[in-house]
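Supplementary Methods, section 5.1.

A reviewer requested that the exact input to the structure prediction be made available. We therefore reproduce it here, unchanged from the version used in the analyses.
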Amino acid sequence: MNALITGASGGLGRALAIEAASRGIDLVLTDIDAQRLNIFRQGLLRQYAVRIEVFPCNLTNSADVADLFSWIQQQQIHLNMLCNVAGIDFEGDFLSMDCEQTIDIVRVNIEGSMRVLHGALRHRDPRNRFTVIMVSSLASLYPIPLKATYAASKRFLLDLSLSLAQELGNQNVSILSLCPGGLPTTPGALQGINAQGFWGRVTTNSLPAVARNTFKRALKGKHIYIPGVVNRVFSLCGNLIPRTLLARLLYLRWSQARQGRPVGEKLIG
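The structure derived from this sequence is encoded token-by-token as follows.
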């Protein structure tokens, strides 16, 4: 079994790669950072007896993505799984950020994810079931002021995943949308979690647990996974509150959490 994992040198991508390798799944790891990819590969090879290949790639560049799948084909790697993890966000409200930063969120989270998903489906192993893990976010379930572009981009991925799960279900393709809350992936992410106080802590998920449970559900053909009891309760409550009121409540929460945070800081996820 072969899995392609994007954003593989980041926190969640690394956790999913470790979980896959522990299950004996061969890996193709891609990320924009070639050095981190190779260091991670060497560490995995010391622990797991699986084939691990790396291919640095800018997912927003169509030529790069075409080269990735051309290389996969040349290596005669037949894909059985895609973990579409790569994503970014930037600290700051809509007008305080440079316009290109907001566009970059769309490019990576939507355009990059679409390119890889389409390519992986075209190059999947037709003899076996193909499993997709699309990393959305708990933020996809709500309109979130001060994280508007990020939340909207993740909503796109959630709706796309649920739609394609039905569209491609009769073609032996299974798609799971992963919607985690906070993840301790980077120092910036940890600062953001701590800035939210109690609610930040109770909505944060353990990376190894999320990776383990995501694989369990994906391989069973589930369509959506929201890690954490508190997060699942919040998702249900969000369906009962009018979205205009929900946006106002979330604005109050995030405006407090954002106090003192540097504008324009890049976040992975």
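The mean pLDDT is 88. These observations are discussed further in the main text.
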